[in-house]
Amino acid sequence: MTETISDGAHADEVRIVYASWPRRIASGVIDFWGLAVVVPILDDHGERALAIAALVLAYLWWLFNALLAGLNGQSFGKRAVGTVLVDGDAYSPIGARRALLRVLAHVVDSLPMGIGWIAPLFSRERRCFADIIMNTVVVMKQSTATVANSD
User: Fold this and answer.
1) Which of 148, 134, 149, 3 is nearest to 70 (CA)?
2) pLDDT-derived band of residue 27, with 50, 70 and 90 as boundaries?
3) pTM value surpassing 0.85
4) SS percent in the chain: helix, strand, coil, step 5
5) N or C, where is the chain less crowded by C-beta within 10 Å?
């Protein structure tokens, strides 16, 4: 989905392209691979100590990616699929604190039987519940470049 915005001060209109659900899922898989794949495999093979170490590293990777997304808009996953996490109004990076709070807000996406994770399929701005709570959107990279160039 796309949206055209204009702040009135500039004659140019800016085209915002919201990230598709498959791109958001691919980004999440890259960012959270350790939690979803590595730890259960190690634990199933009796490597409990190694699984715990992998779990700790996976959480650190997850937090690192959240910080990257907050500081420059892109975690490793978002960079790989060409998306950017931005403020829902200013279309600029949201900062480290808000990014970490957004990670916590993802709990809300999971609570009602995971419905928040598929909410982007039904939202005009393709937002999950955490995005709504934190007033963030995930857009295609070229959208933010266009917004930055319009200033």
Assistant:
1) 134
2) very high
3) no
4) 60, 15, 25
5) C
